[in-house]
Amino acid sequence: MAVITNIEDLRVLAEKRVPRMFYDYADSGSWTEGTYRANEHDFQKIKLRQRVAVNMENRTTATTMAGTKVKMPVAIAPVGLTGMQSADGEIKAAKAAEKFGIPFILSTMSICSIEDVAAHTTAPFWFQLYMMRDRQAMVDMIERTRKAGCSALVLTLDLQVIGQRHKDLKNGLTAPPSPTIANIINLMTKPRWCLGMAGTRRHTFGNLVGHVKGVSNMRSLASWTNEQFDPRLSWEDVAWVKQQWGGKLILKGIQDVEDAKLAVLSGADAIVVSNHGGRQLDGAQSSIEALPAIVNAVGSQIEVWMDGGIRSGQDVLKAWALGARGTLIGRAMVYGLGAMGEAGVTKALEIIQKELDITMAFCGRTDIQTVDKSILLPGTFPV
């Protein structure tokens, strides 16, 4: 096997091992994919200041996110269909995150259920909620989250309507997937993936099928979800969720200063500057470009995190320097999972943490708590 040195190596391997429709699902954006590409590329514009003759011993990247101790300011983002990248994928990713010492966030649209992940982990994980029209279904899901011992709820605000991703349409990624000749031929080239899927019973959306009234299989799920994503989502609904949940609430999908201010008023514990990985509004700002203005506006009142485009520990350090007190990784985790299962997720986390640690040292800092925008070259970062 080739030596894995960075996240790109994991991406290349995942592309070889994961069926095309599921690889493309994760590795794509909406419409022209301009925002999806900008999320990653805009990090490269930001330049670091190298410092020398500084004692670089006894370094630490440890901090907290919403009061949770973390080995580095990184959590695994909620990613739908993670269990189709690798059999039982959410369980594998959650176990890797727990062993490494960072939070795992389970998606509403996961293959493994809340109960599945709880049964295979000991550390509390976080759950990401999509707001549906069926309020009783929401009440039930929040209660299941509570029973599973989840320590935070992540409410995603930017999926009231769904952005079009051309690759999914071309690949026939529907519920259930379209058995096209191209898909069948492609599956025949992925024996490792097929063997893994043959060994698990988890092939559908575990949080919904069998838990939501009227949803007993993939076909009934498809019609239910098409009707259920709620375009009427408002700040009153956010307050309702907060009341139902009663615990730590994180709001994901903030890209605008005005929305960030409203999020503070809602009483949330943290916000995530996010454009849904470039999968919703194509033509929007990259997350790293939107971050500084939001930090300047509300960073003294609420924890500001970000996701979108993080492919290295250097990206994490740059986001922290610009005021993010946490980051979320989705695709970097997915690449590791698709490439090598749980070991691949662990490898991705190890790569990011090592890059973060060494880059911080080269910038003359030994504790991430002392890192600020002074480690960045003036004129190369958004203000």
Write the layout of secondary structure elements.
Blueprint: H1 7-17, H2 20-26, H3 34-45, E1 63-65, E2 68-70, E3 74-76, H4 89-100, E4 105-106, H5 114-120, E5 126-130, H6 135-147, E6 152-156, H7 166-171, H8 181-188, H9 191-198, H10 218-228, H11 235-245, E7 248-254, H12 257-265, E8 270-273, H13 287-298, E9 303-307, H14 313-321, E10 327-329, H15 331-362
Parallel strand pairs: 3-10, 4-5, 5-6, 6-7, 7-8, 8-9, 9-10
Antiparallel strand pairs: 1-2
How would you describe this protein?
44% of the residues lie in helices and 10% in strands. With 383 residues, it is an alpha/beta fold. The protein has one domain: TIM Barrel. Strands 3-10-9-8-7-6-5-4 form an 8-stranded parallel beta sheet. A hairpin with a 2-residue loop joins strand 1 (63-65) and strand 2 (68-70). Helix 4 packs parallel to helix 15 (331-362) and helix 12 crosses helix 13 (287-298). The protein starts with 6 loop residues before the first helix and ends in a 21-residue tail after the last helix. The model has no long low-confidence stretch (mean pLDDT 95).
Q: What portion of residues is helical?
A: 40-55%
- In the CATH hierarchy, the architecture is Alpha-Beta Barrel
**Which spans have pLDDT < 50 for at least 5 consecutive residues?**
none
What is the CATH C-level name?
A: Alpha Beta
Number of strands: 10
Mean pLDDT figure: 95
Gyration radius from CA atoms, angstroms: 20 Å
Q: CATH superfamily, called what?
A: Aldolase class I
Straight-line N-to-C gap: 43 Å
Strand order, largest beta sheet: 3-10-9-8-7-6-5-4
- DSSP helix count? 15
| Biggest sheet features | 8 strands, parallel
Series of secondary-structure elements, N-terminal to C-terminal: HHHEEEHEHEHEHHHHHEHEHEHEH
CATH topology: TIM Barrel
Give the overall shape, derived from the CA principal axes.
Answer: globular
Fraction of residues in β-strands: 5-15%
Q: Which class of secondary structure composition applies to the elements? A: alpha/beta
The tally of structural domains comes to 1
